[in-house]
Structures are given as C-alpha cells and as structure tokens.
C-alpha cells in the first residue's frame, strides 16, 4: 500500500497532466458518463492482434475519474488483452474493497482509498467500464 501523501501526489499529477489523452482514430471506443456526478469519459483501445497497442481517453470530471483514466492508459498500453482484463479485475476488486492493493497494480494503488468512499467508486471505475465496452465492441478493419 502506498503512503497517503504519495497516493495524493500520483492522483494530482495524473489529474493535472493526464497521460494518453486524445482520440485514437479508427480504434474501437466507448463513451460513458456518471449521471450522479457529471463525470464523462471516452476510451479508445487500439489492438494489434491480442496486444493493446494503445489506450487513450478524453473526458471531464473529478480528479478521481480523470486520474483513474490516465493511470489506466499507462498501465494497460502494450499488455495483452488477457493481462489487461486480469489487471482490471484486480483494480476493480481493490476499489470495491474486496481485495487489498496488489503490488502488480503499481501506481494504480494510489486509488485504493476510494474503497472507503462508496460514492466515488463509480468515478474510479468509469474509464475501466468504458474500456470493457470498447474491448467487447467490433474491431475495425
């Protein structure tokens, strides 16, 4: 588990300077919103075979939703789809308070505190839910 000050620093960094922001033309995508707080996110997942060549997002909302999306894109780009889905399952279980943070999550562990904030769980999982839909959709070309 990361110290709280480190977790806050990671979240702030990703919220203020999101990584992998911007559309991936031609890549499957999904757009979701959280009507209870107004967060919105669109996630693109470019595949090359079973690899996630790139994962990008666009969105607006709270620090948790935007940091989670940015952290997700960094953690999953270059992984196989199966590895990405396994990591997503660990992340979801951590956010829901079902599992302790797994060191394999790396900086994603910064969002562990969300498990204590039931209303914010949806914020942390919004981009991950969009990614799941994007991966389930048709693959272009």
UniProtKB/TrEMBL annotation:
<protein>
    <submittedName>
        <fullName>Fe-S cluster assembly sulfur transfer protein SufU</fullName>
    </submittedName>
</protein>
<dbReference type="InterPro" id="IPR002871">
    <property type="entry name" value="NIF_FeS_clus_asmbl_NifU_N"/>
</dbReference>
<feature type="domain" description="NIF system FeS cluster assembly NifU N-terminal">
    <location>
        <begin position="11"/>
        <end position="123"/>
    </location>
</feature>
<dbReference type="Pfam" id="PF01592">
    <property type="entry name" value="NifU_N"/>
</dbReference>
């Amino acid at each position: 588990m990361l110290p709280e000050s480190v977790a806050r620093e990671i979240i702030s960094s990703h919220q203020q300077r999101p990584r992998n922001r911007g559309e991936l033309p031609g890549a499957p995508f999904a757009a979701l919103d959280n009507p209870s707080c107004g967060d919105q996110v669109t996630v693109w997942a470019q595949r090359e075979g079973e690899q996630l060549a790139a994962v990008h997002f666009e969105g607006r909302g709270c620090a948790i939703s935007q940091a989670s999306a940015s952290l997700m894109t960094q953690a999953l780009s270059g992984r196989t789809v199966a590895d990405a889905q396994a990591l997503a399952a660990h992340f979801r279980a951590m956010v829901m308070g079902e599992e302790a943070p797994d060191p394999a999550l790396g900086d994603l562990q910064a969002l562990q505190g969300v498990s204590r904030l039931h209303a914010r769980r949806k914020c942390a999982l919004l981009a991950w839910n969009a990614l799941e839909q994007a991966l389930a959709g048709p693959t272009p070309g």
